[in-house]
Structure formats: structure tokens, C-alpha cells
Specification:
This protein has helices at 2-26, 75-80, 99-111, 127-136, 176-193; strands spanning 85-91, 116-122, 150-159, 162-171. By secondary structure, the protein is α+β, with helices and mostly antiparallel strands. A four-stranded mixed sheet has the order 2-1-3-4, with helices on both faces. The longest helix has 25 residues, at 2-26. The chain is globular and about 40 Å long. The N and C termini lie far apart (65 Å).
């Protein structure tokens, strides 16, 4: 009888352990996975479209000397928007003030690699990278003179019922959590408004 009881306990334990293991293996944790797209389906964006400091812009923002004017977007930004949401950071290797922002943006670029085209515009590299870095100052939120680190994010948004380019940019540091909300918002808007 003791042998039968032990056998029954062992079988019960086997089923309980199997159930626990299988439930862990089959649960959908993709909402927490930055590379998975399923989080987008339940995501609510933090930032909307407008001209204020906390908006995605479609024209130069209120804080810019060219406020309200159209932007002639750079060709490499437009071409990249055919693939995914876009982020860039302009900085210089060795720049103590701008390296944290560059590291932050590049790490987020890696976290969202399937949903984001990320540009590391390190001005010390010269050539095409440096050229793109200088071109990117078009997007300086407050206009000239441009300071680094300069960060920009680009996506597709609806403005007055029409899909258009939406963007936001910063000079200097942006906190980790805040930068990630902008990137997630950009990916969300891109997913909702692209034909991909």
C-alpha cells in the first residue's frame, strides 16, 4: 500500500511540475519584449501631434525661429522612413556631456532593432557620417547654433486625416524613461500609419 501511495504521489508531482513548466513556456510575454510587435496592439501613446514641446511635430515647432513653417526633410531620413521609424543622435566620441545621450539612444536602438532605424552620427568619424551629422542640425528644435548631443526621432503620423512625417528633437540629455516613451510612441505611430 505504501508503494502504491508513493507511486501515486510521484505521478501527481510529475503532472504538477509538468503543468508549471509548460505554462511558463507557453505564456505570452511578448508585450514586454521590445523587439516583438504585439505590444503595439495594446499601447497608448504618451505624445500626440502638435507644435508644443511635448508633441510630435509636422512643421517647425513653436520654440523654433521658423515656427509653423514646413520642413524640407533630409533624403536619408525619408528613405529610412520607408523601412521603419527613425532615430538619430549627433555626438562626438570623447564628449563627456553628450556621451550619455549617445549611449542611451544607441542602446534603445538595439532594444528596438526590428522596429527602428538608428543612426549613430559620431562627428569624429568624418566622411558621410559627419556630413549627415551636420545635415541633422536642420532639426535642431531651437534653431542655430546647434549643440550636441542632438537627438531626433521620425515617424508617420496622421495630421488632419492625412498621413505625414512626424518628428521631435532635443539638444542635450533626455532621461532614459522619457526617451523610451518617445521611441515607443514613434514605433506605435509608424505601425498604425505605414502600409507595411
Amino acid at each position: 500500500m505504501n508503494k502504491k501511495r508513493s507511486y501515486g504521489v510521484a505521478i501527481s508531482l510529475f503532472f504538477v511540475v509538468s503543468l508549471v513548466l509548460l505554462s511558463g513556456c507557453t505564456s505570452d510575454n511578448s508585450n514586454n519584449n521590445s523587439n516583438g510587435q504585439s505590444w503595439v496592439n495594446t499601447y497608448t501613446p504618451v505624445h500626440s501631434v502638435g507644435s508644443g514641446e511635448d508633441d510630435f511635430w509636422t512643421v517647425f515647432p513653436d520654440i523654433n525661429p521658423d515656427a509653423g513653417k514646413s520642413v524640407s526633410h533630409l533624403s536619408w531620413v525619408i528613405d529610412s522612413l520607408k523601412e521603419n521609424c527613425v532615430v538619430f543622435v549627433v555626438h562626438k566620441t570623447g564628449c563627456v556631456a553628450c556621451q550619455p545621450q549617445a549611449d542611451r539612444v544607441l542602446a534603445l536602438g538595439e532594444n528596438y532593432v526590428d522596429s527602428l532605424v538608428a543612426y549613430d552620427l559620431d562627428m569624429t568619424l568624418g566622411g558621410d557620417v559627419e556630413q549627415k551629422g551636420y545635415e541633422a542640425f536642420l532639426y535642431d528644435p531651437v534653431g542655430p547654433p546647434g549643440y550636441i548631443a542632438l537627438t531626433g526621432i521620425f515617424t508617420l503620423v496622421k495630421d488632419n486625416g492625412k498621413v505625414t512625417y512626424g518628428w521631435h528633437s532635443w539638444e542635450g540629455d533626455v532621461a532614459d524613461a522619457e526617451m523610451e516613451t518617445w521611441i515607443k510612441d514613434g514605433i506605435y505611430y509608424y505601425t498604425m500609419n505605414s502600409e507595411k
